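Fold it.
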Amino acid sequence: MSIAKENEIQNIVHEILDDYDKGRQIDQRAFSTRIDEKAIVDVVQKLLRILFPGYYRKKSYSPHDDYANLSFFIEEITYHLTRQITGVLRGQPEFLHVDEPVIEREGQRLVFEFLHRIPLLRDYINSDLEATYDGDPAAKSMEEIVLAYPGLLAITIYRIAHELFLLRVPLIPRMMTEYAHSMTGVDIHPGATIGRYFFIDHATGIVVGETSIIGEHVKIYQGVTIGALSTSGGQKLKGKKRHPTIEDNVTIYSGASILGGDTVIGHDSIIGGNSFITRSVKPYSRVSVKNLEMNCDDRSDIFEEKDLSQGAWFYTI
């Protein structure tokens, strides 16, 4: 390396180190020692093996010794998840002046409380599996759904993260659902409340916001947004209901956007594709966007869309 090049690199390093010393949130250098993203993903993968014991099993584990397999997984999850939860608790204001053994005990308590909820989790997930099979004529078997349907995977990881969210574990539930987001294209905030028999068909491009409430037997298709009407208030909106309520037995077709904390979609309603809804809909409603008329000039091969209404986008009930 030439002297000029070495000097230039040293100058750049010193410039960045000086920038680290400005005391901003972005300048924290100790945070990465508190949490390990790979460890959290590993915990999720081990939990999937517990939730679906016959599907995610590795060949190295005996199919005839469930007690030994479970004991191994529970010990591994307890160790790694306790370390990660302890790490994030350590950075919370209420734990800044708490002794390390106390924080570790709290972390382990939260992990054990979460693990005791696994039977309940499996009951919910089994209902989601049944809803997917019953609702999709393309599904050849339950095995196909578990191993090949991104929607069920996203819902399962959401349900894991939601239980930790209810236990007030910081950050980790969001990291879990973002892992699911990266794997499936489905973005469900762990704070959302979702009932049994939830079916996501085709997955991809789905957003469910933090304060959404979704009832039982709800079916949604790709590209659906259940979101906030406006987030211009920023942190002032924290803790307020910003996202819709979807009651039982609702079907929401692809591309629909349902927005606003006061918006309620009544039970047994059907929301048509590309609908844009910002006010409540009564039970048993059928919501659709009026079609645009497409004209084709064969002489020029120019396509144009002709609006049949005064407004391009609206919905009818």
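Residues 66-90 form the longest helix (25 residues).
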